[in-house]
Specification:
This protein has seven helices and two strands; from the N terminus they run αααααααββ. Helix 2 runs antiparallel to helix 3 and helix 3 packs antiparallel against helix 4. About 80% of the residues lie in helices and about 5% in strands. It is mainly alpha-helical.
């Protein structure tokens, strides 16, 4: 138990340091690549984007962790049903946030941010909302299972994919103006969220593989009977 705790703490600490360093490097790169005007537009978009991220994911991971911990103590069948319900709720919240951000992008850019060039970036970033909400549910599940490796790896890959796409789009893409470059940056964010969710789903698939459960031997039978049980 103690070794597992120390291992998880070391993984989380190491990943946090790497992610912070990567984030700092990315911000420095964006400041140089987008320039003052581009960074100003990017920050405006992030202000609205952060609001809808909160609507899509606020409390989801914490609720998933608590509910899954309770259901896992009762049994795998109950835990599986709870996870399906949580995933459905998360996807519903993410889809609602996506629809709201996409639909309000034009009005928010014009009347709230005062710059219509932000509309494209707001629309494309909206497509990451359902993936983000699903990831929040799955991260809560793995925390309840006391497994930090899936969460750490998914975040590292997410950041790597995001940085890679941004670098390629800004260095080799044909973005003609500041608006297109900001849209490319936010599109990279949406794609990286989808990649992160897919990685977590792959880990869950491995977690939910068929296991052999020994059941009581009925009278007149020999050996052990096994039944497939899926989380």
């Amino acid at each position: 138990m103690g070794q597992s705790y120390l291992k998880n703490a070391a993984l989380l600490t190491g990943a946090d340091v790497l992610l912070r360093l990567a984030g700092m490097g990315l911000r420095i790169y964006l400041a140089n690549a987008l320039g003052g005007e581009g960074m100003g537009l990017y920050q405006l978009v992030l202000a609205v984007y952060a609001l809808f991220v909160t609507l899509a994911t606020a409390g989801v991971s914490v609720a998933a962790t608590r509910l899954m911990a309770e259901e896992l103590a009762r049994g795998r069948a109950q835990a599986r049903g709870m996870l399906v319900r949580l995933a459905g709720t998360g996807l519903l919240l993410g889809a609602a946030a996506m629809a709201a951000q996409y639909g309000l992008a034009g009005a928010a850019a014009r009347w709230w941010l005062g710059d219509v060039r932000a509309a494209g970036a707001l629309r494309v970033s909206a497509f990451g909302m359902p993936w983000m909400a699903l990831s929040a549910v799955l991260r809560g599940f793995f925390i309840a299972r006391r497994r930090v490796e899936p969460n750490v790896l998914s975040q590292l890959v997410e950041q790597s994919v995001r940085i890679g796409i941004i670098w390629y789009a800004l260095e080799w893409g044909n973005a003609p103006d500041v608006s297109a470059r900001c849209t490319a940056v936010l599109a990279a964010t949406a794609v990286s969220e989808a990649v992160s969710a897919c990685i977590l789903l792959l880990f869950y698939r491995g977690e939910a593989g068929l296991v052999l459960l020994t059941i009581s031997r009925p009278p007149g039978t020999k050996g052990k009977l096994y039944a497939p049980f899926c989380l």
